[in-house]
Amino acid sequence: MQRILRCALVVCAVSVLFCAPGYTEEDIQKGAAAPLDPQQLKKELSFVLGKQETSGTWPRTISYTFTTYDYRQDSFRKEERVFVMTKKPMRIIPHSVGVAEILWAICPRERIVAFNEFSTQPDSSVIAEEIRSRGPIFLQGQTELVIGYQPDLIFTVFYSSADFKEKLKQAGIPFFDLGYFGTIESIKEQILLIGRIIGEEANASALVALMNTRIQEIQASIPMRKKPIRVLYYDEGGYVPGISSNFTSMCGIIGAVNVGAEQRVKSWKQIDNETLLAWNPDVIVVPEESNLKEFLKSSKVLSHLTAIKSGTVYTVPMAILKADSQFMVLSADMLAGIVYGGIR
User: Tell me: the pLDDT tens digits for 264-318?
Assistant: First the structure.
């Protein structure tokens, strides 16, 4: 009963927020119109403790499905794999931003012994400041330094170089290669898999449960519309994300349409002004770190765009647009605030 009452209050409060007059573009940009409090949501997604249960014995054999995506062929490839951990890993290094963000939430932080440089960059990571303060940090090419930290497990990803992985093999350091991150469902799967590997299944399950709850609350707050709002993410050089992008998943969470996916773009595609005019999105979002908003608004050619005429071109922090972790829920929350707070 309490949960039903809580959800009702959330829906009521956010419905008033979306309908209330007087919201300025600055308010929307700051996330004031977001269904959930962005700062509180970030805090919740940054540290999750589940009910601790026995996490099994060591060594353990983990069977899992490894998924890769061929961007050129627009196809997925799946294979069944087995990974053996001889002991519970206590010195862990994530080799990507998304994995670092997941571990930050579910793993005792003293077990994370180093982070790569991209995890400290505000345009790459939602928790860049926290990781920079925590450290230590290694640069992308500093393989010897990574080995010197004496990790007993490194999480690599598909873009971790073959040379890096080969040097880890030579040094006898176990590494686990994570597959496709792109949709919210694939991220949930990776969180649960990481939890199994490091012996933090309860925390991983709790994080996924929290994500599901917050997504439901965001979706419950979204106003009913006859037609979904069409949103385009426009990046430097005129590149737009398509079907396989995390942006499509973000739009799906909030009931909007990614115009790039609508136009059958597979991964990323560069478009010209004529194409942008033909697609004519309701809302355009651009990276906060760019000057694209000013460029679009000052272009005489693009002055007929609906988003230009209605003032629905918004900047979003790059780290939010890139999110490949539990923080995609934060991305969806902020995107909902922009999309539905900007269009009455």
Answer: 998 899 999 999 999 999 999 999 999 999 999 999 999 999 999 999 999 999 9
In CATH terms, 60-211 corresponds, of 3.40.190.10, 3.40.50.1820, 3.20.20.70, 3.40.50.1980, to 3.40.50.1980
Contact 296, 313 (CB under 8 A): yes
In sequence order, the 6+-apart residues with CB closer than 8 A to the CB of 72 are none
| Nearest Cα residue to 80 out of 92, 97, 64, 96 | 64
Residue 309 corresponds to which tokens in the numbers above?
């005429």
Q: What are 296's two structure tokens?
A: 């679009």
Pairing of strands 92-94, 75-85: unpaired
The CATH classification number of 2-35+222-342 equals 3.40.50.1980
User: Residue 66, exposed/middle/buried by CB under 10 A (0-12, 13-18, 19+)?
Assistant: middle
The span from the CA of 180 to the CA of 254, in Å, is 22
Q: Are strands 75-85 and 60-70 parallel, antiparallel or unpaired?
A: antiparallel
Segments in the chain below pLDDT 70: 1-32, 53-55, 71, 74, 342-344
Tell me the one-letter amino acid at 294.
E
d(CA 25, CA 314): 8
Amino acid at 249: S
Residue 251 CA to residue 259 CA, distance in Å, equals 10
Which value, to the nearest 10 degrees, does the dihedral of the CA atoms of residues 154, 157, 162, 163 take? -40
Contact call for residues 343 and 229 (beta carbons, < 8 A): yes
Cβ-count burial of 91 within 10 angstroms (0-12 exposed, 13-18 middle, 19+ buried)?
middle
Alpha-carbon span 257 to 265, nearest angstrom: 13
The pTM score is 0.89
CA 252 – CA 331 distance, rounded (Å):
12
* Helix (H) or strand (E) segment spanning residue 162: helix 162-170
Residue type, 150: Q
